[in-house]
Amino acid sequence: MLVIQNATTYTPEPLTGPSDIFIEAERITQIAPHGQVKLPVTARVIDASGLLLTPGFIDLQLNGAFGHDFTANPETIWQISAGLPRFGVTSYLPTIITSPLETVEHARQVLRQQRPANFSGAEPLGLHLEGPFLNPQKKGAHNPAYLRQPDLELISNWSAPRGVRLVTLAPELPGALDLAERLVERGVIVSAGHSMATFDESQAGLRAGIGYGTHLFNAMPTINHREPGLAGALLSDSRAVTGLIPDGIHVHPAMIRLAWKAKGSAALNLVSDAMAALGMPPGRYQLNDFEVYVSETDARLKNGTLAGSILPLDEAVRNLVGFTGCSLSEALATVTTTPARLLGLSEQRGHIAPDLLADLVLLTPDLKVALTICAGQVTYKRHADR
């Protein structure tokens, strides 16, 4: 048994008074006020005095990290997974950007293979396929050579049970809504992004089952007061959860505040959209076929186009609190309960309660990751000098 003792606990709602969390195998078995339940003699105890205990973070858009890119080399999924707990990430969607369809199949096979022996780290919950059904006018850092028109034959084996959990497409493309409906029937979340959709086209997509928006404001038309476009549709429709990259570079803090007021914690989902340079020093890195120039603050193609981010998800949480003044529990919901509910995993992940997976993070008072637990195992512990 593992016991986290004397923690200030957010579920993500804050509990009254310090708590003791009991963990056996992979799951939480009991939550009790501190000191009210006698500890078993054989229990391993983590003293969480002065720390904040939160659910593990879920990242729905992650392109790579630690020098590796999922699209260029899907074999690195497990290697990257092992390092993500340092950012509080306990589960995530490895993101494959627009590429040959063989790359998608390769990534699916990596996930279907038996995980490495003695693996501990963040759990890959399935793939986020960002493309290839994107609008060339909003391709961003995607290679236009691989963009395709929506075609039902191309997605014949895409489904949630087969490892595809989220697909980003442009709803205005011919055949996109039929494709979206088919994917939704198979348990796949369909997202609108990299799109020139008008407000009416966006609403048609939402009616067809599109339930998510990929990196709000980025790779979509600017909101106009007479033509709100995709961003306006996502902000004004209660059916849509929308992802947001809160690094202060992809989206100005003032627009982050507006998005927060429009969507709130139940419908705003923070993502990192991080690429291979996450956790690495500035330099040159790959995003699929392209060389990306990474500074201390951002990642760009040679022509200046943003190419993913270098934003850790724990920093995203800190930024949302700083940019909007929201509470910690509200910020936590955007990376825990909201993505878990979107994925249909609320009975397993996303909050702290008995019988749920023990995916947990201990934060310092300044919201830095001190320790991460994935499925009951300590997978990251911050050194005292960090």
Keywords summarizing the entry:
22 strands, eight-stranded mixed β-sheet, Urease, subunit C, domain 1, 9 helices, TIM Barrel, nine-stranded parallel β-sheet, globular, 386 residues, 2 domains, alpha/beta
Describe the model.
The protein starts with a strand and ends in a 5-residue tail after the last strand. β18 and β19 form a beta hairpin. The chain is α/β, with parallel strands linked by helices. The protein is 21% helix and 26% strand. Strands 6, 9, 10, 11, 12, 13, 14, 15 and 16 form a nine-stranded parallel sheet that branches. The chain folds into two domains: 85 residues, Roll (Urease, subunit C, domain 1); 287 residues, Metal-dependent hydrolases (TIM Barrel). α4 packs across α5.
Layout of helices and strands:
Elements: E1 2-9, E2 19-24, E3 27-33, E4 44-47, E5 52-55, E6 57-62, E7 64-65, E8 68-69, H1 77-83, E9 89-97, H2 101-112, E10 123-124, E11 127-130, E12 164-169, H3 176-185, E13 189-192, H4 199-207, E14 212-213, H5 229-236, E15 241-244, H6 253-263, E16 268-270, E17 283-287, E18 290-294, E19 299-300, H7 313-324, H8 328-333, H9 337-342, E20 360-363, E21 369-374, E22 377-381
Parallel strand pairs: 1-4, 1-5, 6-9, 9-10, 9-11, 11-12, 12-13, 13-14, 14-15, 15-16
Antiparallel strand pairs: 1-2, 2-3, 5-20, 7-8, 17-18, 18-19, 20-21, 21-22
Helix pairs in contact: 4-5
CATH fold name of the largest domain: TIM Barrel
Structural class: alpha/beta
User: Main beta sheet, described?
Assistant: 9 strands, parallel
What oligomeric arrangement do these chains adopt? single chain
Residues in β-strands, percent = 25-35%
Number of helices: 9
